[in-house]
Amino acid sequence: MSEYKQEISSVLQGGYAHPLTRSWQNQGKHLTKSQFMYPIFITDDPAASDEITSLPGQRRWGVDRLEEFLGPLVKKGLASVILFGVPFNMKKDHRGSPADDPQTPVILAIKKIRGLFPSVFVACDVCLCEYTDHGHCGLLRDNGTLIYPSSTARIAEVALAYAQAGAHCVAPSDMMDGRIAAIKQALMDNGYGNTVNLMAYSAKFASALYGPFREAAGSAPSFGDRKCYQLPPHARGLARRAVLRDMREGADILMVKPSLPYLDVISDTAEAGCDYPVACYQVSGEFAMIHAGANAGVYDLRTMAFETCESFLRAGASIILTYFTPDFLDWLAA
What we know:
alpha/beta
């Protein structure tokens, strides 16, 4: 029997036989602490520290507890947070009036965090669903359909209020047509166009993975669903169009949400927006699933957290919104 002669080009394993050479196979992309943005829930009970049962290790926080909560994380290298308001005690109405009330928890938290931790980049989710009495992300007609011009104008008002309170970044997640242009114009008209970042939830899909978040934020719609404004999960081309639209309308950062089921969309976004930072949101259901699998002994929690976040980086994201942020502050220091 003749001896098989292996082709030189088929020999790959020598290139990653050592731990260091394996680490070099990432095309220069490493996870760093500064890439992680921590989503936190701010409620209107100033003393609150309430467990969120469906999100392991996560809590709703009152403004008076932010120093004890964030202080240790800042010392470990926390670079950025994104704030979600949870107004259990404020009166909700059809237009989401609590969203930009001067006493709304997000506005109070912006000022608190900016004062306590000047190095922390403060982003704010901009939406109406937590603040309306119907739980939808815009303003509605009597028949339950969305009023788009009024909705985008209202979203822009809320974004401007957060900018005026001191937010570094406003991040509209409502998915109303035209809201990026409306917000950008409002920021420019009021002197914030050159100082406040606009991070667009450009490709936000109507996913089954938002359940724990909706429990945490009390933001489930009281009727119907959000499929008429969030993207269909199969709509890759529509996602590209949404990304291109947000680029034209003045977005500074492009986001894909959720992350793991949409790696192709992250890659498409990075290609279409090659001159833009690309963010992805590892949403509540993704986080909860990883914990559930680890608790069932399917895999190691840390290993799977790294595998998923490294896949986002590989697909083209440079910013990762994840509830694993406190864990990565420890893991990346090890």
